[in-house]
Amino acid sequence: MPTASETHERVRTATRQNELWDKGIAASLEHERGITEKDGILYYDNRVYVPRHSSLRGEIISQSHDHITAGHSGIAKTRELVQREFWWPKIHKDVEAYVKGCETYMVTGLPDSHGHDALLVVVDRFSKAIILVPCNVELSAEGWARILRDHVYARHGMPQVVISDRGPQFVSAFMKELYRMLDITQNASTAFHPQTDGQTERVNQEVEKYLRIFINYHQTDWADWLPLAEFAHNNRAHSATGKSPFMILYGRNPRIIPDSPRTPNSKVPAASDFSKAIAQIHKETEAALEDAAGRMKAQYDKHKRPACEYHVGDKVWLDATNLHLPRPKKKLDDKRVGPFLVLEKTGASAYKLKLPPHWKIHLRFNEKLLTPFEPPAFANQEQPPPPPPDLIDGEEEWEIEEILDSKPRKVRAKRGQPSTTVIDYFIKWVRHTREHNSWVTASEMGNAQEAIAEYEAKMGSNERVSVVKIAMSKSPLAMVLNHHFDGEDISYLCQRKDGTQKWVKNPDVTLFENFLVEYWSNYEYHSLQRTES
C-alpha cells in the first residue's frame, strides 16, 4: 500500500498533466463550488481532487477496499472510506463499478488456530464498535468472565446491558464470577438478556467474510487476522449511525497511513471544545439510531432477486454452498467460485457450465445458484492471463506457486507383488485462479523438490496423512458428508457430533450402515434433481 505522500505526489503529477490545469482551472475555480489549490493539488470541500487518469482512481479505491485494513467492504462502506480524503465527479458510480468487479466475495465450528476453536464477538449497541477475542467452545463461566474483564471492562467499564445467547444458568454463574473478580459485593446494575441478537449475527457474518478472504488455505491462522478485522469494522461508517465506531468513541477517525497530511482548512476542535464535539457526535448518533430503527425491517425483508437470463459465452459465479471443496471448515470457505463460462441452456432455468476437468460433479446448475460476473471496471483490478508452460526437455511444465495439501494414495502392484503408497500434492499454479488447483503425484514433481521441502517444513511432518483407516472418536458419528473413489477403495468424509471431520477409508459397513444408507439416498436424490433441472 503506497504512503499518503506517494499518493499525493502522483495526484499532483496527474493534475499538472491534465489539460484542465493548462486552461487555468485552479485560478478560475478558486472561488467556485469550494474548489481551492495548494501545492499543485486541487481540493474540493477539503478533499483531494483526483483527475482522470488511467489507473490512479482505481488504485485509490483499491486502498479503501482491497487492503487488509479495509476488508473488502460493500459499495456504501467503501465509498465512505474513499470520500473521507478524495473526490472526483461520479465517484459514486466508480466505487460501485469497482466493488461489483471485485473477484473476492462474498462463531463456533472454527478450525484450531493457536489452540483456539471459537471466537467471542462483543458488539457495542450504541457505537457499533466490536471487540474480537479468540477462545474455546468449552470455555467455563470463569473463562468468559476473565475475557469480559480484560477486553471489555478494562477498556470501557461495566456495561449497562449484556445480551447473550447462552442459557440463564450460565449467565448467572458468569456474572457472579465477574463480580468476584472485580471485588463487587453489592447488586450491580448490569442487566443480562439471554437471547439471540440479530445485530451480532450480522457482525459474525461480516467477520467470517473478512477471514474467508485473507486466511491461509488450511485456515489455521484466522486468530492472527482478528485485530485487523476488528480495525476494519471499527473504521467503517455504520449504516445506522452514519459514523464509524472510532468517530463515535474517540471523536476522530484513525490515520491508516502514517504520513497522511491534513487537507487545507481542516476543522480540528481545540482541546477546550473537544468535550462539546463528542457530546454533539453522541447526540447525532442517538438521532441516527432512532431513524435507522424504522428502516431496519425494510432493509432485511427485501424481495428475492428476479431470475437472470444467461447466454452461451456469458461468465457466471457459482454458489459454493453445496460444493465439497477440500478445505478444513466450510464456515471459512469460499461462498462462490468461478467465474465459469456458460456452455448451454439446458432447461427453463438450468445452465451447463465449463468447470475444471478434475471436478467430478455434474455440469448443470439451476439459475438460483448463479450470479452474473461483472468484469473489472479498473485496470488495476484486471488479472493477467495465465503464463504459458515452461518447456523442459521438450515437455510442458507449469510453475508451482504453493502446495496446499497432500494425501497418501495406495497403488496396487502386479500379482504377487506388495502394493505401495505414494503421496499426491494439491497444487496452486502461478497466476491461475483457485479453480485450476489440481492434484499431482510426487513422481510428476521432479523439478519441485524445493516446494515440497517448504511444504513439509510448514506442516511439520514429512508425510501428512489426510486419508486414514478408521479412527474412532469419543464423540459419536453424526453424518457422512462426502465420498471419493481411489481404484477399488472408497473413502467417506465423516462428521462427528463434536463437529470434527475425518476421511475414513473402507469403513466397517456394519458400524456405518445407517449413515451410509442415508447419505446415498440423499446423494441419488440430489443427483436426480440436478439431472431433471
TrEMBL record:
GO cellular component: nucleus
InterPro entries in the cross-refs: Chromo-like_dom_sf (IPR016197), Chromo/chromo_shadow_dom (IPR000953), Chromo_domain (IPR023780), Integrase_cat-core (IPR001584), Integrase_H2C2 (IPR041588), Retrovirus_Pol_polyprotein (IPR050951), RNaseH-like_sf (IPR012337), RNaseH_sf (IPR036397)
Keywords: Aspartyl protease, DNA integration, DNA recombination, DNA-binding, DNA-directed DNA polymerase, Hydrolase, Magnesium, Metal-binding, Nucleotidyltransferase, Protease, RNA-binding, RNA-directed DNA polymerase, Transferase
Coiled coil region boundaries: none
Ranges of residues in domain Chromo: 398-467
One MF annotation (Gene Ontology) recorded for this entry: metal ion binding
GO biological process assignments: chromatin remodeling; DNA integration; DNA recombination; proteolysis
Ranges for domain Integrase catalytic: 81-253
Pfam families for the chain: Chromo, Integrase_H2C2, rve, SH3_Tf2-1
Top-level taxon of origin: Eukaryota
Protein name: Integrase catalytic domain-containing protein
